[in-house]
Amino acid sequence: MASLTIRNLDDNVKAALRLRAAQHGRSVEEEARHMLRQSLQPVALGGCLAERIGRRFAGLDAEGLYVLPCRPSPVVPQVDEGC
Predict the structure, then answer these.
(1) Where do the domains of the chain lie?
(2) Are the C-beta atoms of 33 and 41 separated by less than 8 Å?
(3) Are 54 and 47 in contact (CB under 8 A)?
């Protein structure tokens, strides 16, 4: 296997990577490998938009996500364009 050294990594980027790794239960190094693999996978363009979105987010842990409650859309008043 090959090794990769990344120099001059911004402290904020490193902190964000460390946080993301902790959220996924991985080491920082394993999280970086996972992110590289995910970002370099070939993109499948077939299917409708919903299928492509589903493939894009497949495998993500969505159980802990907060879902906003649905609210009715505001009523937009009708404007009379007559002079």
Answers:
(1) 8-44
(2) no
(3) no
| Cβ contacts of 20 within 8 Å, gap of 6 or more | 31, 35
Of 31 and 78, which is predicted with more confidence? 31
pTM, rounded to two decimals: 0.52
Tokens of 1: 């296997």
Which pLDDT band holds residue 82 (cuts at 50, 70, 90)?
A: low
Query: For residues 13 and 19, what is the distance between their CA atoms, to the nearest angstrom?
Result: 10
At residue 3, the pLDDT reads 92
- Which tokens go with 39? 């970002």
Structure tokens at 10: 């911004």
Structure tokens at 77: 């008043």
Tally the C-alpha atoms within 13 A of residue 31's C-alpha that lie toward its C-beta. Answer: 16
Residue type, 14: K
Distance CA 28, CA 20 (A): 8
